[in-house]
From TrEMBL:
It comes from Mikania micrantha. This is VOC domain-containing protein. Pfam families: Glyoxalase. It comes from the Eukaryota. Residues 8-134 form the VOC domain. InterPro entries: Glyas_Bleomycin-R_OHBP_Dase (IPR029068), Glyas_Fos-R_dOase_dom (IPR004360), GlyoxalaseI/FosfomycinResist (IPR050383), VOC_core (IPR037523). SUPFAM superfamilies: Glyoxalase/Bleomycin resistance protein/Dihydroxybiphenyl dioxygenase.
Length: 138
């Protein structure tokens, strides 16, 4: 009997300077619900649909020794190899909320040729967050 080896996408881990601060920032700026924040503030999770966005400190001996150090963003002219994307029915309102709650404005929402309205901000760790509508079928 063959086993089913298709993985279920569990979560994305975002390495940040301050887990509690990042979790609270995402709650306020993007309207995310906090799933949990452990007592040590070394792990936090957000509800994000069928998957989870998790936060953990940039520097931690548990993973640095195994997989190497996390490279922190050094300049706003460069970005991490990670972009967090949220879908909203009202991208303009979501963008406004994010900026009013501390996100750095990068690009105001605009209609794209592929049928999606998209705006960009940076979070409190400099990570790019794309805020977009659902793509309209053509």
């Amino acid at each position: 009997m063959a086993s089913n080896m298709n993985p279920a996408y569990a979560y994305t881990v975002v390495y940040v300077k301050d887990v509690a601060k990042s979790v609270e920032f995402y709650k306020k700026a993007f309207g995310a619900s906090i799933r949990m924040l452990d007592g040590s503030h070394r792990w936090g999770e957000l509800e994000s649909g069928q998957t989870t966005i998790a936060f953990t400190p940039v520097h931690q001996h548990e993973t640095d020794d195994i997989t190497g150090e996390v490279q922190e963003q050094k300049s706003k002219s460069r970005r991490n190899q990670l972009e967090i994307c949220f879908a909203y029915a009202d991208v303009d309102a979501a963008y406004k909320r994010a900026v009013e709650n501390g996100a750095d404005a990068v690009c105001k929402p605009e209609e794209k040729e592929w049928g999606q309205k998209v705006g960009y901000v940076r979070d409190n760790d400099g990570i790019v967050v794309r805020m977009g509508s659902y793509v309209k079928p053509r």
